[in-house]
Amino acid sequence: MNGNNKVHDQKHTNGTPTVVFSSGDEDNGEVSKEQNGASAIPQNQSHLSPPEMKKKGSFASLTHKLGFGHGSASQLSKSSSKANNLSASYHEHMWDIHETIMHNKDSNIDKENPERSKGLSSQKARELLEQNGPNKLPAPKEISDLKLFIKQFMNMLWILLGVAAALTLVSFLADTSDMTGLWVTIILYVMIVVMCFISFYQEREARKVVRGFQNLLPTSCSVIRDGNETVIGAEDLVVGDVVKLKSGTKVPADIRVLHCTQLKLETSSITGESEPVEYQYEPVAENVNIFDARNVAFNGSYCVDGDGIGVVIKTATDTIIGQIANMTTDQPNKKSRLEHQIKIFVKFLTVLAITVGLSVFVIGGIVHKWDNIVLLLATSFAVCSVSMIPEGMPATVTSILTLVARRLARKNVYLKRLDIVEALGSANIIASDKTGTLTKNEMTVTDVWYSNEYVTDISEHRTGHHRTMTVKTISRVEAPLSDLLVAMTICNTASFDESIDSKKGNNNKEGKVRINMPTLDENGELSKETVQNTVNRYNTVGRGVQDTYGRGVQNTIQRRRKRIEQIQGKQAVGAPSEVALIKYAEQLINVHDFRKRYNVVFEIPFNSRRKFHLIIAKMHEIGNGQYQYLLIMKGAPEILIQKCSTILTTDEETELTENKRNEFQKAYNTYGEHGRRVIGFVHKHFNAPASIKFNVDEGNFPLKDLVFVGICAIMDPPRDETERAIRECQEAGIKVFMVTGDHHITATAIAKQIGLIGKEGHDWDVVKGEDIPKLTDQQWDKLIAKRSLVFARTTPEQKLRIVEECQKRKQIIAMTGDGVNDAPALKKSDIGVGMGSGSDVAKQAADIVLTDDNFSSMVGSVREGRLMFDNIKKLMVYVLCHTFPELWAIIIHFCFGMPIGTTSLIILSIDLGTEILPGIAMCKEPLEGDVMKRPPRKEGKILIGKALLAYVYGYNAHIQVVGCFLAYCTVFWSHNINISDLWMSALGSWKHGGALFTSNGRTFSVEEQLYINRQACSAWQVGIVFGQVFNVFCARTLRQSIFTQGLFSNMAMNIAIIAEIIMLLVFVYAPGVNSFLGGAPVPWQSWAVVAVVGMFVFSYNEVRKYCIRRWPNNKIVRAFKF
Length: 1122
Fold this sequence. Notes:
Elements: E1 5-6, H1 50-53, H2 59-66, H3 70-73, H4 97-103, H5 122-132, H6 145-152, H7 156-174, H8 180-205, H9 209-216, E2 220-225, E3 228-233, E4 242-246, E5 254-266, H10 268-271, E6 277-278, H11 290-293, E7 296-297, E8 302-314, H12 320-329, H13 337-367, H14 373-388, H15 392-409, E9 413-415, H16 420-425, E10 429-432, E11 444-450, E12 453-456, E13 471-473, H17 481-490, E14 495-496, H18 498-503, H19 528-539, H20 546-568, E15 572-573, H21 576-586, H22 591-595, E16 599-604, E17 612-623, E18 626-635, H23 637-640, E19 644-648, E20 653-655, H24 658-673, E21 677-689, E22 706-715, H25 722-731, E23 735-739, H26 744-753, E24 764-768, H27 777-784, E25 788-792, H28 796-808, E26 813-817, H29 823-828, E27 831-835, H30 840-845, E28 848-850, H31 855-880, H32 883-894, H33 904-914, H34 916-921, H35 946-974, E29 997-999, E30 1002-1004, H36 1006-1035, H37 1042-1045, H38 1051-1069, H39 1073-1077, H40 1084-1110, H41 1115-1118
Helix pairs in contact: 6-8, 7-8, 7-14, 13-14, 14-32, 15-31, 17-21, 31-35, 31-36, 32-35, 33-36, 35-36, 35-40, 36-38, 36-40
């Protein structure tokens, strides 16, 4: 547009605007924010019908339903939050110019013209800087990398294994002829170091929260000191400095604006406002929140338009962003539930290993008559520790978590901490932001109204209120729609980014529709020819047969949809609501070419006081030096209609009668009550001299007796998949709370559309942010017990309060957020979920980042979390079942004097070799069908409960012990040795330098004894590993039959089992390998007996699972359920 003169507010020196357009009834902050003339709801609340005044969402009805009177509703509950009330520490927004000067005497502020202020003296600024410190956020308190690395070795599991390795080294030093002890020591220490390096790297990457705040702050600013404007480092700024704010710069501190001209600040990262906010300098009432005052510019905000001057009132950690940083970094580091439960299990293993080791040492000492007590002590404790602790479990769990993280990454979910997905799987509350998460974050024109016609959007977006109205879709351009398109296009500062579009090429590829440039008539409106061509394009029926007609209609629909998709994908620059208008108009006309026909010569930008945007376009000459001009206004409909005397209909301009006003009011209320942002359009043709210079003060253009054209409704539509995702959460027993900064009517309307709340019922409520501090503990109890909640107009501390109240009631809460203001709540919540398009601070404070900002992605993460919990439990069932068979191989030697059943290297070959791949493949197990149909796990339910311990260390484990012992016996039977002869025989035989051994009349030399013993160790190894092959099929399901799940449905598991058997064959039969491990080839009978026992274990588990499915509530059956 060619704007020759753009009018700003002209201010008197006393601060009073020359022209102020009254807005009628004031909303007192109760309506949603307005941008570019957009009014979310009617400001006059009397417009709402009586039923709407009693909506379930109102706080009055909330307290009534909860059974509390006004007295209790006004009581302040004691918050457990350490956060200060951000707004309560500010009073400057209520000061007028005189009070501001009184509190900043050293700033030498000129009350008549603040731009002539002299500012602080350099000497005073230096004194204040020395007294209060620099204007910067303190560096995060972090331990050094060396201390962090050393900290990793304090894990109880590594300490226990380290002690085991040391004892193994002692046993090697006692008998250096056997190198086994040395190899075990080396392997254990290498494994400990590697695992500590991994955990060190992960924790080091997670410590970056405060660094994101530093990136928001400017490095320099323009100040006035000693009467001169100068540029200084932002760190040198002090309270009382007079600062100039200019377009394209960041606000360097919290600044009370003294004077401004069209100042607009982008504050989305701090306040959550989605559009640039227009600022002013007048004081506000005492009940107005600092975030709604619009006269205090916050540190880190970005100046997008206009300029201003102000005085610094807060610096460093006293600013809003500094307080938010403190609220975030003061939160203690979270420990995941998985990490906590594994710690509990490790403590259990530690106690168990020490107890068993001590018992074996005492009994072994008695049996072996305390011969070589040092070697006995070292060996008993070391071997028991190695056998009791599944060394491969940490690596396997980490591998599973890594694979799950990669799987989620492909679904646009990035895990900053691998173990956090388990916590998400146990979440019973998801508190989600609205904009961009539940909705598309794309302002879209959903409906237009003109001449009492309710018209749906061309792009066929769903609108929930159309069931009660007679509506039509746009199929042709006719008046007054043509006038409405002109107003949307010309009275609009947004534009398409042609540089981006040109890079894509201008060729008309297949499937795209060319829209011819519409022809204007002599009045500058769409000509009848254009209208008729549009009608013909969409409505003409061909002369051919019926099937040709059908194909033509279908092709037209497809072309229209492709055209709409093409337009929606175009890049545009401007306020979101204005972008929505030009994208709507572009569906019928070429906006870029259309604007060339209108020569805009005068413009009054929109602001929050006048609530309209005005342009005047010079049309064509009519003779005698006169030209016809077109005035277009766009803004708050309730303001614009007061300036009109006529309304445009399909036929002509008609008088704006009371009946017509009621029709408009009905449409306005209907859209507003359904959460739409409503924009009105008026125009006026008038004649004036060609050389006229339009001026607000002179009033030389019409501002009354205008023509009302129509209104349009704009909203950020819900994502297509949101409703299904919320329904899935509710089926899974997860409560979904919407926490948004939007107005409660807008939030309620979206909540209804996405199925979060219903039209009827008492299992939901809407709470305004201003009422959150007034809620008592009893009210919080009843609120959090509800299925769904909508929190509207929330501030950072209120979001934090919501998280704390949920956690006080033992709820596991996942909180989403994208702004700096969300960081404290993200850090405090059990699972902080940041958005990929959000601020760096939010992403760094979060545990999970949704790269597509989509709520359904988080629901998918819940599913993965629950699946992962089940699969880790299955992993525990699989891995832990072999620890007792390993232990019994030691017990029979130390306590019963029989030849030893295994070696330390064989144990490590199992724990770090054959067990790893099947354990990792367990993460590939699919859902058992009911994972998202069952409620979240109860608080306190642990990963490894009593029933699971009874299974892995009790009946199932000891069945496997029987299999291992029988395989062990087959070796001696193959050599015609009676098992009874083995009792206490190891006291003198079956070792280097031992005595001869005789059984069934045959005497065995020491070399023969050692070989047979190595065979027995390998047989026990076959018993464990081959037995685990059967056990893994048992562990793959917790309740379903493996045949229902699919015996070979997990391809990764099939490959892992084959690899496990191949490794076992190598360990047992490969020369050199078996001797290194301390084994030897075994007879086929060993395999056969293990297979029989394995089939028994498999059959028993199928019966157990059947009983769990058949009698789930039976007390005896529940004892076998884990």
